[in-house]
TrEMBL record, chain A:
InterPro entries: MbnP-like_dom
Top-rank taxon: Bacteria
Species whose genome carries this gene: Tenacibaculum lutimaris
Pfam families: MbnP (PF20243)
Domain Copper-binding protein MbnP-like positions: 28-223
Name this protein carries in UniProt: Copper-binding protein MbnP-like domain-containing protein
UniProtKB/TrEMBL annotation, chain B:
Keyword terms: Heme, Iron, Metal-binding, Oxidoreductase, Periplasm, Peroxidase, Signal
PTM annotation: Binds 2 heme groups per subunit.
UniProt subcellular location: Periplasm
Name of the protein described by the UniProt record: Cytochrome c peroxidase
Gene3D superfamilies according to UniProt: Cytochrome c-like domain
Species per Swiss-Prot/TrEMBL record: Tenacibaculum lutimaris
Cofactor(s), names only, from the UniProt record: heme
Gene Ontology MF terms: cytochrome-c peroxidase activity; electron transfer activity; heme binding; metal ion binding
Cofactor note: Binds 2 heme groups.
Length: 252, 340
């Protein structure tokens, strides 16, 4: 009831003020996803070419980087939330497809942007999304089912300087012995964004962040077969919560 | 009378549009196939494409058709390592099987991805000197002088003037109808049959990241194409005689990468790999288990390359093979719509 009263009150205020002010604009919003390694931009041309160093000192290259964003929403100053049902599979190998146009317009104003890395359990339903099935984004049921959250693949040099593959795949954590799952998706909330015109909001993903804080990741110890590793998935998720995603430039 | 009849046909004949017969399992799991707006499927176009596919008129000396290297009974490949062209010269790649092409969402065809779209791919064999070794001018002239083709093109495309564009459009229409979605495993997914314990274990080996880990490149129960249609270096060689995708893109990082073939119909499509080096499925499985070779562009998904491979047990190898064979589709190779 309080909410209804508040909404009516807001409407009255807005109606009154509209006599004197500019009409409230409806604007379109796009999210643009960029990737970096502790601030150095990662582009398609860096794949298999550029060598990065992670927190524990391993030198590595990236061959493949895909990740899933879902449950995008914008919350205005009155805590009204506009939810967008779409999800986005970001693939750095497809540079023409790194934006997500939010399907509905919103009123100009100040917002917080919220989104989820991966799928929350409720959304993470095996076989439910034909477009994701079609690009092999599934997780086998024997490893908890649903979908990948991220595929970060490449080569790292071990302590002898020998190249080894790594498959840093983030999925929902699954304990096969107990047949239990643990939601490792990550809710991300940005700071306040003032949107006055059609806008493109940059979402930055720091790939180096997956390998540090709070769990400094030693690829010499764990580099492959991570999907079925319950503890590894929890560690990946914890690292993802500490500043991997951040707000970048807003163009409007 | 002849002229007016032709004019009448040109004015009134409208090809009958058709939709692909999409297998139930594809409808459940996959997005819609790709049908280009400038080449919709029609009864007349498909029939014409089929006739062209099986007609040696496309080759220089009228001895080879598309079907010479793409035999329906072999899931539209043949059983030789390399195919012999009209001049007796051998190619350098194994003939690719043809099915479910409309679900190649990136539309990059051939082992090295050099052709974008089925229509574009169909241009190549006619003029390739080690295949049909003809040229499109001659082919168009032969077809134009043929007793039946001008009318068939008229019916399919509204023009009796034959050119390479319409020939390849017709062949592409026929090729899009080559759909394989009725294997034993498809029936299992639909709840219509049971798998043997060996097949089930083989499927688990396929899907288990810690054993076969085949699903990252070769589809799954949720992607029944059984390929990602992407390009990978799967550890065949330390150095490359054939650059594969790298020769197309010019990027050294793509050297030695070839398209993942579908694992459907393996019972009919030996030999295996882009160069047909493996005669049997056992050899293929042994390659991934113990035979991987390190190279500059090895795919990271070949994660145990430094140990030679994923080191499957004999039991898992045998069961994996049994599962793979459950993806073969006898209804496809015997479909009367696809026979000459």
């Amino acid at each position: 009831m309080k909410k209804i009263i508040l909404s009516i009150f807001s409407l009255v205020i807005l109606s009154c003020s509209s006599d004197n002010d500019e009409p409230i604009k409806e604007i379109s919003v796009k999210l643009k996803f960029t990737q970096n390694w502790d601030g150095t931009i990662i582009e398609r041309s860096d794949l298999e070419n550029t060598e990065f160093t992670n927190k524990t000192g391993s030198k590595l290259t990236i061959s493949r980087l895909r990740y899933l964003i879902s449950r995008v929403s914008l919350v205005n100053g009155a805590s009204d939330t506009t939810k967008f049902d779409s999800y986005k599979l970001v693939d750095i190998n497809k540079p023409d497809n790194l934006t997500l146009a939010l399907p509905e317009k919103i009123s100009e104003g100040s917002y917080k942007l919220l989104f989820t890395f991966g799928f929350i359990d409720k959304d993470n339903i095996s076989s439910a999304y034909t477009d994701l099935n079609s690009v092999d984004w599934n997780v086998p049921d024997m490893m908890g089912g649903g979908y990948h959250f991220m595929q970060l693949d490449g080569q790292y040099k071990d302590t002898l300087g020998i190249k080894n593959p790594y498959n840093f795949h983030a999925v929902r954590a699954y304990n096969s012995e107990k047949d239990s799952i643990f939601d490792t998706s990550i809710s991300i909330e940005t700071g306040s964004i003032l949107l006055k015109n059609n806008a493109t909001i940059e979402i930055k993903m720091n790939a180096a962040g997956w390998f540090k804080s709070p769990n400094d990741w030693n690829l010499n110890e764990k580099s492959v077969d991570l999907m079925g590793d319950f503890e590894a998935q929890k560690d990946i998720s914890e690292n993802g919560k500490s500043g991997v995603f951040s707000l970048g430039t807003i163009t409007q | 009378m002849g002229c007016s009849s032709k004019e009448e046909i040109e004015n009134v004949y409208t090809p009958v549009q058709v939709s692909l017969k999409i297998p139930e399992i594809f409808q459940q799991k996959l997005i819609a196939p790709i049908i280009p707006t400038n080449n919709p499927l029609t009864e007349e176009g498909i029939a014409l494409g089929k006739k062209l596919f099986f007609d040696p008129i496309l080759s220089k000396d009228n001895t080879q058709s598309c079907a010479s290297c793409h035999n329906p009974k072999k899931a539209f490949t043949n059983n030789t390592r390399f195919s012999e062209g009209v001049d007796g010269k051998l190619g350098t790649r194994n003939s690719m099987p043809l099915f479910n092409l409309a679900w190649n969402f990136d539309e990059r065809f051939m082992w090295d991805g050099k052709d974008f779209s089925i229509e574009h791919q169909a241009f190549s064999p006619v003029r390739n000197p080690i295949e049909m070794h003809s040229n499109w001018k001659n082919v168009a002239e032969k077809l134009q002088e043929h007793t039946e083709y001008p009318t068939l093109f008229q019916q399919a495309f509204g023009t009796s003037k034959i050119d390479s564009t319409h020939v390849t459009k017709a062949i592409a229409q026929f090729e899009r109808t080559l759909i394989s979605g009725s294997s034993k495993f498809d029936q299992y997914l639909l709840g219509k049959t049971e798998l043997t314990p060996e097949e089930l274990n083989g499927f688990n080996v396929f899907m288990d990241e810690a054993r076969g880990d085949c699903f990252h490149c070769h589809g799954s129960d949720n992607n029944p194409l059984w390929t990602d249609n992407q390009f990978h270096n799967n550890g065949l060689d330390e150095t490359f005689n054939d650059l594969g995708l790298g020769a197309v893109t010019g990027d050294p990082n793509d050297n030695g990468k070839f398209k993942s073939p579908s694992l459907r119909n393996l019972a009919f499509t030996a030999p295996y790999m882009h160069d047909g080096r493996f005669t049997t499925l056992d050899e293929v499985i042994n390659h991934y288990s113990e035979g991987l070779k390190q190279s500059l562009t090895i795919d990271p998904l070949m994660k145990k390359v430094n140990q030679g491979g994923v080191q499957l047990s004999d039991k898992d190898k045998a069961d994996l093979k049994t599962f793979l064979l459950s993806l073969s589709d006898n209804n496809f190779i015997n479909n009367p719509d696809f026979q000459q």
